[in-house]
Structures are given as structure tokens and as C-alpha cells.
Design goal:
Blueprint: E1 2-8, E2 11-16, E3 28-36, H1 39-46, E4 62-69, E5 81-84, H2 94-97, E6 123-126, H3 129-132, E7 133-135, H4 142-145, H5 151-161, E8 170-174, H6 178-187, E9 194-199, H7 202-210, E10 215-218, H8 223-230, E11 236-241, H9 246-255, E12 256-264, H10 276-279, E13 285-287, H11 296-304, E14 314-318, H12 323-331, H13 333-336, E15 340-344
Parallel strand pairs: 8-9, 8-11, 9-10, 11-12, 12-13, 14-15
Antiparallel strand pairs: 1-2, 3-4, 3-6, 3-15, 4-5, 5-7
Helix pairs in contact: 5-6
Length: 358
Amino acid sequence: MKALVFQGPGKTSWQDAPDPAIKDAADAIIRVDAVTICGTDLHIIKGDVPEVAPGRILGHEAVGTVVETGGDVRSVRPGDRVLISCISSCGRCRFCREGHYGQCRGGGGWVLGHTIDGTQAEYVRVPFADLSVHPLPSAVSSHDAVLLADIFPTSYEVGVLNGNVGPGDTVVVVGAGPIGLAAIATAGLYSPGRIIAVDLDASRLAAARDLGADATTNAEEQPERLVEDLTDGLGADVVIEAVGVPEAFEMCTRMVRPGGRVANIGVHGKPATLHLEDLWIKDVTITTGLVDTSSTPMLLRMMAAGRLPGAALVTHRFELDQMEEAYEVFSHAGETGALKVVLGGPQHDAIAVPLQEQ
């Protein structure tokens, strides 16, 4: 098969790779029909995630068709169209039993495109398939569904839920890329008083307004002053960091009110300064987190009902073999206007499946 292979910091290639095979009875082999690129993939290529070794196939978000399953898999079978979650869950360890699948200690967690080969390929092996893939209703397109693999559950769980967004809150989202935009959309489910988006890019701020932001500001134009003005000097109830750079995190801590919450979503490759000389007295709560994807079934129902803006976040579409071109467009989003890029598309053709013994 063909796959996008990490060759070390700054280097990837779309190349031949071995076809995946069943290694465990809980595995499924899935033909990738639609896949996307995550900001975390860019962090990996920059060298910010040293656990990813050269030779690894990247990617952790996809929609596909099951072609083979191990003997223990019960929830899906060959021919089923499924969403591949960015998090795999063994279902047995302490963290999985508590619903914290991202911290799985039984061989799961964030493994796809991280510690095992990922989804930016023609086929992928998914471990713990019963708990790590979700059958898709025909009403949800592949281009919409692929956004539920990571960005929507991440923004909702790590941003909105960790930030404890509530009715009437002033919510600031720093970073209006795909994760930040999904945070704006899902924060709106809780009727905040206002949502303020901060970014450097005018087109992303326009997208933030379309998705529910009540006010937007350029990150270089003193966003702290705008937050002060809109809150009578108090500060924001919730600030969500969706960039992953020290300057953005430190800005968040300056904008939060006493007793407020800072929810960090961004993937950080460098240390950020925690200004405890200012924060120690403010009763501020700071949360970090890796998504658990426990919300994915609920979000899938909402998307099927038309309650989540899937297609609005997809700005560019490519064929699967245009992976390198898609990366070029996504990594230069300031020039291309890219939000989410999707490769592949809906496929409903018949596929060969192994005959099951009677």
C-alpha cells in the first residue's frame, strides 16, 4: 500500500509500505476512505513529539470500511463503514474503566500515528476495535464524520468540559484554527454570555464569527484590553488555549478573571512560563488534557441530527495520493486559508470480504 511515512524532523514521504495485518484478536483492518491532517501531525514533523520514531506512518483520524477483523471483534464486521477514533481503548485498565481512555495503560490511548502506524495510508490496523471504532449512519458523510475522530471531541472535552463553560460565561478562545473553531461551536451549546476569538489571521477570525463568536480580535492588537472592556475589568470566566505556543498560554493566564478557568488544548513543544507571582492569589484553575473520546457517540448523534457544523470546517479536499500536496496546503494555512483538509471521499462501492464460516 501507499502511506505517509515520517522520516525524522522535517521529513516525510508518500511511499510504499507493508500492508497491515491482524496481530491481535481484537484488531480490525480498515480501508481508509477519508482522512485528515491534524495540527499535532505538524508538531510531530517539527520534532515536538520525540516519541514518534522515523519510519512511523502518521495520522490518527479517518473514516473507512472494515475489511477484516480478529476473532474477538463483535461490534463491527467486514463491509461496515466506521469512524476511527484518535484514541484506542483496551477497556480493562483502571483508566479505561473510569472513562479516561486517553490515559489507557493496556496498550491503548493515543497510539495511532504515535507509537503504532496510523491512518494516513490506504489501510490501517486499529487495535481494540470494539471500543475504538464507531459504526456510521448513512446520513453522516465521510467528510463530516472524520471531524469526529479528533477535533470535535478534543475541543469539547479538553476545552469546553474542562473549562466548565456555563450559561452567561465570557469565554475567550485563543487560536481560531480547526480546534479553536470546534471549541467555539461546542462552547455555544452551553449558552455562554459571549465568546471572544483571538487569532492572527483575518480569515480564521471570520470563520470564528460564522461559527458563533460574538467578538473577534487580532492577537497583536492587545486582546487583553478588549476582554477587560467587555467584562468591566473583571476578565474572562473561561479561557481556552488552542495554539500550543508559550505566548498563547501566557496570554490566556493574563485574560482570566479571579476564580476563572484556563483550559489548555494546544500541543506544546516548548516550556511556557507560569507566572505564579501574579496567579497565586487569583484562585485560577488551569487544566491540561489528552482527549478521551468518551463524548464521541453523543457528538455523532448530534452530527447526524444536523447540530454540529461539519462541512463548514473543511476548506480543501484532495485525493488520497495527493497527501504531500495536502500537507503543503495545511502547513501554510496563513497563505492558503486552510482550516481542515480532507483526503479521499465517500465510497459506497462493493468490496471483497472474506466468507465467514457457518
